[in-house]
Amino acid sequence: MPYPTCHERLVMAYTFYYYFILMHFCIIIVAATSNALTRPKFSSILVFGDSTVDTGNNNYIITVAKGNHLPYGRDFPGHVPTGRFSNGKLIPDFLASYLNIKDTVPPFLDPNLSNEQLLTGVSFASAGSGFDELTTLASNAISVSNQIELFEVYLSKLKGIAGGNKAKQILGDAFVIVSAGTNDFILNFYDLPSRKLEFNITAYQDFLQNNLQTFIKRLYDLGCRNFAVTGLPPIGCLPFQITLKFEKDRKCVEDENLDAKVYNRKLEKRLLGIQAMLRGSRVVYTEIYDPLIDIINRPEKYGFAKTNVGCCGSGLLEVAPSCNAITPTCDDASKYVFWDSVHPTEAVYQHIAKYIEMEVLFKFQFHRDYTYK
Ligand SMILES: *[C@@H]1O[C@H](CO)[C@@H](O)[C@H](O)[C@H]1NC(C)=O
Ligand SMILES: *[C@@H]1O[C@H](CO)[C@@H](O)[C@H](O)[C@H]1NC(C)=O
Question: Residues of the signal sequence (predicted)?
């Protein structure tokens, strides 16, 4: 075999180099293409509301509504209580991972958030909150209007990290979850009837939805565009409500469920109206009643055994401080619909998140294809 000349060696080296570069480019192109296919449709996830979506903000405020002690979080990665009111993850965590954003949504009040965590979104929600300021007066939670003030602080941080234009784009492409309302009915109408002196049920529902409308308008004015607004769950099926109303055979409180259904049909209509009013917005009603009542009515179909008591303690009344490290708990929370007397188990949250993924998320997809084509 003849020894290659200097020139030949140079050619070989260049050829090798050329192929190397070419291959490198091919890999980059393939990576970029597949990345485009699986790219999250949303830049980030922003969350407002109550304990159904509070991932730990109440750890940092003075309130008894805290879930940062065991047995809360016992099935969370690392088995740590984070302040989430369940044995594991919440719906925003599941949705953030289905949307390829991240695996868990941190609370905004966590003082140790990285820039990356801020860029991909946080929760401003607070357990005990609602759309009625009287509700937060009762629970000492962060009211929804104070959640907007926190959001403004967040926004200035975001601008500092990404610059004004990029921050605006991130907000416009953010998936915004709004989930509250149950506490308003429990703390001001059914169990502590302070608002009953002022409003009948119809008028109270309208009052709350007026507040909700103002809330969404304020977020829109600050740059948010894509809203998933959850309706009410079957409030009459919460073990706490069943206990308080002494329901025979621990059946759900039917009139409270009926009120929730009426509220939800009104909300669905109201959100269409809000969307029509706010140019370029998507304000999508997000059903949680139907998937939850189906689990409660046909638990065996989904692998659940207990529907009317929580896993924590007697399951009749325990929640927050009364569900704690010395409270006996059930062995397998995934057989229970409710974790404590008010909040679902992680297994239920995961079912509902899957339902939202199938039944709700495409409504945003359509909007984006339509807008950006
Ligand atoms: C924040 O991080 C510091 C250093 O890692 C740690 O000492 C501190 O406990 C953290 N604070 C919280 C609230 O997580
Ligand atoms: C509820 O109150 C409103 C006025 O606030 C009244 O117009 C309406 O008729 C009442 N509805 C019922 C069912 O009593």
Answer: none
